[in-house]
Amino acid sequence: MTTASSTTAGPSGDRSTYDAIVVGGGHNGLVNAGYLAKAGLRTLVLERRGLVGGAAITEELVPGFSFTTFSYALSLLRPQIIAELDLVQHGFMPLMMPSSFHPTGDGDYLLFGDDHGQNIQEIRRHSPRDADSYDRYHHDLDRVVQAVRPLFDNPPPNLFGKDPQDQADVGWLLDHLGGIEQKVVHDVVRLLTGSASDWLEDYFVHEAVKGYHASSSVIGSKVGPMSPGSGLVLLFHKMGEHDGHLGSWAFHKGGNGGFTQVLARAAESFGAEIRVDAPVSSVLTHEGRAVGVALEDGTELRAPVVVSALDPRRTFLELVNPRELPADLVDNIERMKFRGVSAKVNFALDGLPVFPALRDTTDHYGGFLNLGPTIEYVERAFDASKYGWYSERPYIDASIQSMVDPDMAPPGKHVMSCFVQYAPYELKGSDWDTEREPFADKAQAVLESHFPGFGDLVLHREVVTPLDIERVTGLTEGNIFAGEFLAPQMYFFRPAPGWSQYATPIDGYYQCGSGTHPGGCVIGAPGKLASQRILRDLRE
Q1: Using one digit for the tens of pLDDT, what is the confidence trace for 306-349?
Q2: What's the angle, vertex CA 106, arms to CA 101 and CA 112, rounded to 5?
Q3: CA-CA-CA-CA torsion sign (464, 97, 231, 127)
């Protein structure tokens, strides 16, 4: 995968002074830079690695095989960003996933596609009662999504502010909530505070049907589907859309690295400059105001606006001196929960795996492969992480991306991306450098149990532990969301009470990473919303 090139410094030729400097070339940093540059600010993006993208990258680790090392799917990207940053003009090409495949653990399966009627019939094969509940489930969940979406796409009100605008924002929130039907409000609260298991049991009785729908309630989070808080994760992953279809997912052409290259080209087209291999050591301040950054090689760059796209711990405790911040903010950031529990095991394959009940078709390989047959299976996989160990039989969210984008592997070969839980960042009595391969063996054994002969197809295996995620991307404790999705760490409180609107206590210093509202995944909203705050402050 190519890296973004640097543009020239502009008519002045001065490459040390800018209007805005963005620290971190992940997708939110690139979105933020795109908006700032589009507004006319001379903007510089500094990325410590040799390529932009952060956790959304594509790498050719084996000749001809393109690996999406970390994140690998799109859904939550806000549609406005696509239009406002002219992403289609710069190569934006999402490839819709036509299917979702869920082995039931007994040799059978659930296979969902674009045909709603066929999906209901697929459930009816297993449970007529659940088939009758399917529309009611989606109707109720869609109403919750519609109720929450305005909160998702706007900055949280500052509950603690005394400014008239703060009071007006709180009034808007109360008016919005007051206009939602009572049952929907109750469903919102149930999902935000309760478990996915409790929610699903209101609709379904078949264990595999519940297991399929619970799969998105644990992604990236140290919760099981029976844990309070898993309902929030389920709701978050249903907020995505493509072409108006709620909850739908896609792969980008060339993987998520292809997407972040699109963002880089868009930002550069508006005049942003991108420098790779440029790690920032600190934000420079003077009398309580940001004035620029210092690179690890000693270079100093000046700008009246500095934006951190890094996670909250690095934004507040590493890039600046915590003594410049209020004690309560430092305390909240120090107590913020990260606790990464997700790993990746990616494969280069000599051919397609075989699922015994579907030997004569490949239709089930068009999207996600959900290897967590039941809620109880996933909950037992979670149990190990509570005691500092990885799952003996992990839950796997997988995809054979070369089925959707054949250019990602040589003809007849394939790449398979596997998101594996649970893999706690801290292991009790061992470490990830020791346990990397034994953990991957556990994941491969699960794949072998569903696809006999899978091991014979493996040409190459890449293992990415939470420690690797931290080492490579800088995400604290390998948490893919830059801070866990827990109610006390969302909306008003993300990343800390009183600091959820992208500013910081240091004038001119802002935050735009996934540790801000609305949160993680390849979403872009933190980058966009932060740019709006910056531009508003500059106008005022």
Answers
A1: 999 999 999 999 999 999 999 999 999 999 999 999 999 999 99
A2: 20
A3: negative
